[in-house]
Amino acid sequence: MKENIKSLVKKGFLSEKEKRALIKLVAELKASWPGVRIKLFGSKATGKADNESDLDVLILLPCHVSHAIRQKIIHKIFNLNFSLETNISPLILSEIEWETGFIPLLPIHQYIEEEGVAL
What is the pTM of this model? Predict the structure, then answer.
């Protein structure tokens, strides 16, 4: 959702570089995995960031997250971080992992569900 990203820039939560990186990341992930859900969470989503804050991003894939898939996404993010001088920090899970088992019991799950911004 480009509008959510633009809104975060307008509020001063994200820089222009961060906006470009997130828009590019979302487009690349959606091209490779239709149905992927992405949320920004943490200090950049809530406006509590400082100069050392990273971009915490939850990536929920509609498939099993194999080692190869995880590495492919990490490689994409590394290239974005390097080329745009950003610091995207991903949490990569399948939708099934996010919705079942022990992960929904973790405090971070509730936090991201409540505070995360869909991208």
Answer: 0.95
